[in-house]
Specification:
With 156 residues, this protein is mainly alpha-helical. The chain is 37% helix and 0% strand. The chain has six helices and no strands. The longest helix is centred in the N-terminal third of the chain and has 16 residues. The model has no long low-confidence stretch (mean pLDDT 81).
């Protein structure tokens, strides 16, 4: 526990040193208060051998779609999947129940529009998991009446 406490304080210093010594000391105090508030909770030793009563849906265990598509996508290796992995799923549908295998955060990679690469195909807006990339059509009259932020991001 002492090692863990030492590592927490080292990380607090690393993370908050640029905000000032007072912030670092407040974090150190919080770590110490948390350590002083620990209590031992007795646990029945028989619990160490309890059987797992989780119900597993047997129809998905070993399912090729889960193994060949869902798991690589969840491991952020979806771009390395061969086209043949999607045979039978060409329309983009997923089998029902696959979210049970998706233990991931959606916002792991934040999208960024790169103007130099843009060919105005709008595919970025279609696939953006955050729905922050949004295309729009605007004519000259609308553009002249638009707020300054819209005018700055206009593409000719």
């Amino acid at each position: 526990f002492e090692d863990a406490q030492k590592y927490m304080k080292e990380y607090a210093h690393k993370a908050y040193a640029k905000k000032g010594e007072a912030i670092v000391q407040m974090n150190y105090s919080a770590i110490d208060v948390g350590a002083n508030g620990l209590i031992k909770v007795p646990v029945d030793p028989a619990w160490a051998n309890l059987a797992d009563d989780e119900q597993k849906d047997e129809k998905y265990i070993g399912n090729s779609f889960i193994e060949n598509v869902v798991k690589p996508i969840n491991a952020a290796r979806g771009d390395s999947l061969p086209v043949s992995a999607f045979i039978g799923y060409e329309d983009g549908h997923f089998e029902a129940g696959t979210t049970a295998y998706e233990k991931r955060g959606v916002g792991v990679m934040v999208p960024k529009w790169i103007e130099q690469n843009c060919i105005q195909c709008n595919q970025c807006a279609f696939v953006c998991p955050h729905a922050v990339i949004r295309p729009f059509l605007i004519d000259e009259n609308e553009l002249s009446a638009a707020p300054q932020g819209v005018k700055e991001h206009n593409l000719e």
